Fold this protein.
Amino acid sequence: MSFSPPTASDLEALVAAAVEQRVGGAVADLERAVADLKTQLENLRKDCPEDRATIVAFSGDMDRLFAAFTIASGAAAMGMEVSIFFTFWGLAALRVRTTYSGKSLGQKMAAVMLPSGPAHVPTSRMNMAGMGPAFFKMLMKQKNVQSLPEMLEMVRELGVRLVACEMSMGVMGVSREELLPDIDFGGVATYLGDAARSKITLFI
Amino acid sequence: MANVDLDCQGLSCPVPIVRISRAMKELASGDTLTVTASDPSFQADIEAWVRKMGHQLESFADTDGVQTAVLRHA
């Protein structure tokens, strides 16, 4: 039996075997730990708020809607995804026409109470039987502030998602045909779905 | 690297920020946007805007109520 010196590949194999014996288990443990951390990170990312703002426009008052549209357009200009959910009196902002046919008496009364569009909404204070909005409009024009219909146009151009609440449409007797044509319709889950992913959520 | 001028004088919040946002989208990295504005909240707003968007405010000057901001696209 003659002795032959180990070749380079023999040595390599020996070293690999020794390394595997010592750290093989540790590597497998590490790989498992990394996989576990990756899963946790993915789950955390799912729960993380996105660069998104969600606003509920409940009020149909000119000044409050004005605040909603100002924040919405500002957020969109700051690169955020923005949704506005219009519910109850807020629906007035999206209204383009008023129909009475096919509505119950109560719904007809609500149809009269709900203003017929952003140019016709009252102010929350000093409405003075409709004189307040005219006064406000004059002040806003003097200060070169955009009107409410212009603000609405701007948020639409900025790609803000406008959602009308179907439930309050039902209560107020507002049909889809009475609202702007290219908007979304949804319920509370639609709002919560967007709000849960948002950094900012407001009720105005 | 190009420079674009944007006149926002006489415009009120939030319109300057909206116009700046639109104008900046048309620019490439390193380009500058020179904005003139008279809105009283302009300085505070533009500082917050660049911080959020990651662009740079190269300079800001206020001469007799005419504010001039030079923004550099990141």
Q: What stands out?
A: Chain B has a mean pLDDT of 94. The longest strand of chain B covers residues 56-63. Chain B touches chain A through 15 residues (CB under 8 Å). DSSP finds two helices and four strands in chain B.
